[in-house]
């Protein structure tokens, strides 16, 4: 206890020096916690994207096509139809949902407001496969789908843009290309997709009405859908189902064996998990860089403790002469370095919490504050105090009392 | 004082050398010395004579190369640093030429300092330190820091510190070396007083008039004891 007091006293005697030394630790531990919070936040964002994508999703699009020597962008000309979707569902039991959809831009008008948004014409399976949940109201029924009813589901963002009170959007009428549609449901929010687009800025109608009235297709395309979204029952079946779909579609569209397939099947889940891995590696890298700055802080502590031991050589000699054993001197100096580090740790934690909250609020980034990481970094810092404080303390404890007393 | 009493300090065939170039420098050669409990002894000698080494050996700050140092029949032979520290703590009070007080620390805390190295927590530390300060007539200065005290007062604080663990032996290395002659007399009077109370006092000095206030003067030269004389008459003269 008195050794602790002595250590505290000597730190207070050199306030400026103690503060500067502590600053190294403060910066180090803040860096660790901030980097971790940001890295973990990015991680969680990817996880949310995976979640919003739906589980085990394959996307089928028309592949890049050669028309007279010019390769066109993938999906430009689609030969997929709703019947293809039905065939996949019927023939491949592992394909749990097979969504069929077409996309377009639409100017949506509701009483005195209007808004440009993405319009998706889809079947009911699309809603399940893409993991759309309903926030208010209901999704469209089979009956409404078959009859091409003029009904619409709107995303959260669209609801906000069109209606003064989004809570009462259900039952309102909106117009797209002069076609009046009744809002039957508001979709639950999904946030941004992997490219940063707001997925909630959207309008979904039955595929049938979209094909007939809403998306400006010519009659030749009236039966086409632009893509199929397939939800597979289990992850291990993804590759198998991919092959099955390719085979089935080539067969249905009479593609001969040697030709390039006009369809491409993409494993979106795999793409996202690759991204999740990349972001995990990136946040690990950040944490490593941050740990280096904590290490540098530790070296600063060691440096200042060595100075302190040299400065107080005579005092150490005196203490030994009056009966201090080597372990007393060792413990006294270890206390000093550990206290320095712990004060730095506490201030660093406060600073980093402040910084993380500021970043989260000002830049609107996802952050994760993990109590475990805070605990680990505080304990780690205490260990740094012991680790880097040990050599100076050991040096002090092994001074020759006679030499030390004579030291000028 | 009977002759059967345990000697405070006894040195037997003490030799010590320092490495210096090729040949080690023999700083002490075959010293035999006994200091009885209750004696007041001055060790004199020119610099380089080996008196400091003798003092360090007696003070258990080091162990001898050859021979033996016994402190109240505890031989320092083979002791490790921690054991030596305990021996110093329990039996020896050190007084230094430069006082060696902790700066910016009150007289009371300076006196109390050695207690933190006791095996058991000392609860009445303040009270004990106050009594020690009283015994050196500094009871009214307990909250002063060294910079607020004169040289003589600082040395008296240092003496009070040496007394805190109630040692039987006081070792003083040039205790009056940094003081003027009037203050030196006060400090010597204090040492004589402590000696009369039963403390064995050993002091190293250059000044003959300081040495002559002791019972016995040991003169060391070139690593051997050149003379060892008693000074009885002088003490009777000085004592009122």
Describe the structure.
The complex is a heterodimer of chains A (408) and B (240). Chain A is elongated and about 100 Å long. Chain A has helices at residues 2-13, 15-53, 82-91, 124-129, 142-146, 156-162, 207-214, 238-252, 268-311, 313-321, 326-363, 371-397, 401-406, and strands spanning 57-62, 66-67, 70-71, 95-110, 113-122, 134-137, 151-154, 173-176, 179-187, 202-206, 227-232, 263-267. Chain A folds into 2 domains: 2-49 and 274-406, no CATH class; 80-261, no CATH class. Chain A is of the alpha+beta class. Chain B is an alpha/beta fold and 240 residues long. Chain B is built from 8 helices and 10 strands. Chain B has a 6-stranded mixed beta sheet, with helices on both faces. The interface between A and B is medium-sized, with 23 and 26 residues.
* Category by helix and strand content of chain B: alpha/beta
Assembly state: heterodimer
Number of strands of chain A: 12
Side-by-side strand order of the widest sheet of chain A: 4-5-10-7-9-8
Strand order of the largest sheet of chain B: 6-7-8-3-9-10
Order of H and E elements of chain A? HHEEEHEEHEHEHEEEHEHEHHHHH
The CATH C-level name of chain B is Alpha Beta
Alpha-beta content class of chain A: alpha+beta
How many structurally independent domains of chain A?
Answer: 2
At CATH level 3, the topology of chain B is Rossmann fold
Mean pLDDT of chain B: 90
Provide key terms for this protein.
heterodimer, A: 408 residues, alpha+beta, 2 domains, 6-stranded mixed beta barrel, 13 helices, 12 strands, B: 240 residues, alpha/beta, Rossmann fold, 6-stranded mixed sheet, 8 helices, 10 strands, 32% helix, 25% strand, globular
Task: Sum this structure up briefly.
The complex is a heterodimer of chains A (408) and B (240). Chain A is an alpha+beta fold and 408 residues long. In chain A, 55% of the residues lie in helices and 18% in strands.
């Amino acid at each position: 206890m008195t050794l602790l007091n002595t250590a505290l006293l000597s730190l207070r005697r050199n306030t400026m020096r103690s503060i500067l030394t502590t600053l190294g630790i403060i910066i180090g531990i803040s860096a660790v916690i901030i980097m971790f919070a940001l890295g973990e936040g990015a991680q969680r964002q990817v996880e949310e994207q995976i979640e919003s994508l739906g589980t085990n999703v394959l996307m089928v699009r028309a592949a890049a096509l050669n028309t007279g020597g010019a390769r066109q962008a993938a999906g430009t000309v689609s030969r997929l139809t709703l019947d293809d979707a039905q065939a996949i569902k019927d023939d491949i039991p592992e394909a749990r949902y097979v969504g069929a959809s077409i996309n377009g831009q639409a100017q949506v008008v509701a009483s005195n407001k209007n808004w440009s948004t993405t319009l998706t014409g889809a079947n009911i399976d699309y809603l399940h496969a893409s993991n759309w949940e309903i926030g208010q109201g209901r999704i469209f029924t089979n009956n409404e789908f078959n009859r091409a009813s003029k009904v619409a589901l709107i995303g959260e963002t669209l609801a906000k843009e069109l209606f003064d009170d989004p809570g009462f959007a259900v039952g309102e009428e909106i117009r797209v290309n002069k076609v009046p549609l009744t809002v039957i449901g508001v979709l639950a929010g999904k946030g941004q997709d992997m490219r940063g687009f707001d997925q909630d800025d959207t309008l979904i109608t039955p595929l049938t009405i979209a094909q007939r009235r809403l998306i400006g297709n010519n009659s030749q395309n009236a039966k086409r859908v632009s893509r199929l979204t397939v939800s597979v029952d289990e992850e291990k079946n993804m590759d198998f189902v991919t092959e099955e779909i390719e085979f089935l579609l080539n067969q249905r569209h009479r593609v001969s064996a040697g030709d390039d397939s006009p369809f491409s099947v993409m494993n979106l889940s795999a793409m996202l998990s690759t991204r999740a891995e990349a972001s995990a590696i990136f946040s690990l890298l950040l944490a490593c860089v941050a740990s280096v700055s904590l290490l540098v802080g530790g070296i600063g502590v060691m440096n200042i403790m060595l100075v302190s031991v040299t400065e107080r050589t005579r005092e150490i000699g005196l203490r030994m002469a009056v009966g201090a054993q080597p372990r007393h001197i060792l413990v006294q100096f270890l206390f000093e370095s550990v206290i320095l580090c712990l004060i730095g740790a506490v201030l660093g934690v406060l600073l980093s919490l402040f910084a993380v909250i500021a970043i989260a609020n000002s830049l609107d980034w996802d952050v994760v504050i993990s109590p475990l990481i805070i605990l680990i970094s505080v304990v780690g810092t205490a260990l740094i105090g012991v680790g880097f404080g040990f050599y100076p303390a050991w040096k002090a404890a092994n001074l020759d009392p006679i030499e030390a007393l004579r030291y000028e | 004082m009977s002759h059967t009493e345990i000697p405070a300090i006894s040195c037997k065939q003490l030799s010590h050398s320092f490495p210096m170039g090729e040949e080690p420098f023999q700083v002490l050669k075959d010293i035999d010395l006994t200091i009885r409990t209750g004696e007041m002894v001055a060790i004199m000698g020119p610099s380089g004579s080996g008196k400091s080494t003798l003092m360090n050996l007696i003070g258990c700050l080091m162990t001898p190369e050859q021979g033996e140092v016994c402190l109240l029949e505890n031989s320092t032979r083979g002791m490790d640093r921690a054991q030596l520290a305990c021996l110093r703590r329990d039996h020896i009070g050190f007084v230094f030429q430069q006082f060696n007080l902790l700066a910016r620390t009150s007289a009371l805390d300076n006196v109390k300092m050695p207690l933190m190295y006791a095996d058991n927590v000392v609860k009445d530390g303040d009270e004990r330190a106050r009594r020690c300060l009283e015994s050196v007539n500094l009871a009214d200065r307990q909250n002063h820091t060294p910079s607020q005290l004169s040289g003589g007062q600082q040395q008296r604080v240092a003496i009070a510190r040496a007394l805190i663990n109630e040692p039987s032996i006081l070792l003083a290395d040039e205790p009056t070396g940094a003081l003027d002659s009037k203050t030196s007399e006060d400090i010597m009077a204090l040492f004589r007083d402590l000696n009369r109370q039963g403390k064995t006092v050993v002091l190293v000095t250059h000044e003959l008039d300081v040495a002559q206030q002791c019972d016995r003067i040991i003169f060391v030269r070139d690593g051997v004891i050149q003379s060892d004389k008693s000074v009885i008459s002088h003490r009777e003269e000085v004592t009122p």
